[in-house]
Amino acid sequence: MPEDSLPDRPSMPFVWSDRSGGPRDPELFDGIVLRRSVAYIIDVVILLGVTGFLWTLVVLTLGLLWAVAAVLTPIVPLVYHTALIGGRHSATLGMRVTGVEIRRLDGGRPDIALAFLQTALFYATVTLTSMLILLVALFNDRGRCLHDWLTGTMAVRTAAVERLGA
Fold first, then answer.
1. How far is CA 159 from CA 36, 101, 106, 156, 163, in A?
2. Residue partners of 142: CB distance under 8 A and separation at least 6
3. Using one digit for the tens of pLDDT, what is the confidence trace for 12-48?
4. Which end of the chain has fewer beta carbons closer than 10 Å to its terminal beta carbon, N or C?
């Protein structure tokens, strides 16, 4: 079936094809590793603020909330990344500041289940492989990290997506 006869996909911002530049367009990935790294630093600062506030409440309640804080501390980053990547902008607050968003390989935005899987794999790979996650991104032309490969996603520049026809 020729590509021209395929039905339109209105949920896609543009078609990932060689004709449109698609995922091969270098503009989508220009400086993406640095942008993602800065975005993660911003996200860590935000998450430290949230968990710091939570543990301040523990101190203010003379330890009464320690069990709640102990349970919520590892859950907060998981919920933060999942809700924001699976949300309307497909990006955490740090990603939005640096102009990065997450897309599926077909160009669509990840749903909440895929965002959860990507987030869980991100934290698993960071925990188990430390800097290997960044090394994978440095040695491929799209800056895809290990959790991107495992979930069929990629980080792209928001401005480039908009220029390609969002």
1. 15, 10, 18, 9, 6
2. 23, 28, 29, 32, 154
3. 444 454 444 457 788 899 999 999 999 999 999 999 9
4. N
Yes or no: say if 115 and 89 are a contact pair by the CB < 8 Å rule: no
Spatial distance between the Cα atoms of 92 and 134, rounded to a whole number of angstroms: 18
Give this prediction's pTM.
Answer: 0.83
**Length reported for the chain:** 166
Domain map (residue ranges) of the chain? 27-163
Cα-only R_g, the chain: 18
- HEC letters along 65-128: CHHHHHHHHHHHHHHHHHHHHCCCCCCCHHHHHHCEEEEECCCCCCCHHHHHHHHHHHHHHHHH
| Predicted confidence (pLDDT) per residue in 110-127, tens digit | 999 999 999 999 999 888
SS3 for 157? Answer: strand
- DSSP assignment letter at 7: P
